[in-house]
Amino acid sequence: MFEKQIQIPSAEDILAEFPVPKALAAVKRERDRQVIDVITGRSDKLLVIIGPCSAHEPRPVLEYVSRLGKLNERVKDRLVLVPRIYTAKPRTRGVGYKGMFSQPDPEHEEDTLRGIYTIRKMLLDTIEVSGLSAADEMLYPENYAYVEDLVTYIAIGARSSENQMHRLVSSGIELPVGIKNPMSGSIPVLINSIYAAQSSQVFKYHNWQVKTSGNPYAHAVLRGRVDNYGNDIPNYHYETVMQVLDSYNNTEGGLKNPAVIVDANHSNSAKHYKQQIRIVEEVLQNRSYDPDFRKIVKGFMVESFLVEGCQKHDVVFGQSITDPCLGWEDTERLILDIAEKV
Fold it and tell me: How far is 281 from 315, CA to CA, in rounded Å?
């Protein structure tokens, strides 16, 4: 049984009610171009998508991105920093805090309409205070339309990468979409997802039959896998990355813009958040060893916040309430180190 609670206005109505100011829209367009240039190879900078596991409250997020914006000024000749502002949280068992989109206050009940307004304001404020536009995870495909004018990078999670609707909607997005390998770690499934996202599709979306042109910027994200016994198995090593490159090259019909982003957390680190530093270092060493590896690895995803670790309830300002993250001091050192070794 479905109990109707709150009627949500259409995305078109919400965007018309809260449009992006022209100056901030221009900043976002430039940021989009920078990220696209990395994925296509027009730029040899590295992409670093970095931020908290989930954005549960605007104030610490804005403090974090303000610091990131200042740090960006020091590394922008070598890196493209994209703050990770994930507003929907997947749950392994389907229950618990599901992110700001549905629950803008993690200590109170769900309120999706207030969540949408809260997120739009936070993403606008992010651009204004830092000059950086954000990455978000497209956990629920129909929600993307409510933030499409504010985000620069879209991630498709491991649980979603085999889902047909995620693939179809990705094909209509005009931004880089990073598709993670499925929980099984299957590279053929990952490549099939990218192929679907890069292809033209026809389907029902927001009460319309739509036709997409295909997204040439859809690409692979390696996040590790989970075996049949629940063990985390990393897949950021040289051999796996080169297998992905071979799969790109050998796909019938061809794929555009071969690219891999390495997710340094999740099953690659077994959620031991400090290991992200070591994993990034190993990938950077492999980039210096093999020009083909260097060419396909376009950057990293890193989970980081103001205070390291995590907490069950929002008590410590700037500490994750979901998975544990690097703290700011480690974050700053890591970004500067990446910039030095690009």
Answer: 32
Which domains does the chain possess?
Answer: 11-39+46-341 (3.20.20.70)
The per-residue pLDDT for range 127-162, each reduced to its tens digit, is 999 999 999 999 999 999 999 999 999 999 999 999
Supply 118's token pair. Answer: 């809260």
Task: Please check whether residue 182 is in contact with residue 188, taking contact to mean a CB–CB distance below 8 angstroms.
Answer: no
pLDDT digits (tens, 9 = 90+) for 29-75: 999 999 999 999 999 999 999 999 999 999 999 999 999 999 999 99
Q: How far apart are CA 269 and CA 215, in angstroms?
A: 30
The shares of helix, strand and coil residues in the chain, as percent rounded to the nearest 5, are: 40, 20, 40
Which tokens in the block code for residue 125? 């404020």
Using the Cα atoms of residue 27, residue 262, residue 168 and residue 214 in order, give the sign of their dihedral.
Answer: positive
Residue with tokens 């555009």: 256
Residue 326 DSSP one-character state: B
State whether the Cα torsion 191-181-148-96 is positive or negative.
positive
Single pTM value for the model: 0.96
Q: What is the rounded CA–CA span in Å between residue 257 and residue 39?
A: 7
Q: Are 151 and 170 in contact (CB under 8 A)?
A: no
User: What is the four-CA torsion angle of 185, 186, 189, 195, rounded to 10 degrees?
Assistant: 80
How far is the C-alpha of 342 from the C-alpha of 162, rounded, in Å? 33
How far is Cα 179 from Cα 197, in angstroms, rounded to an integer?
9
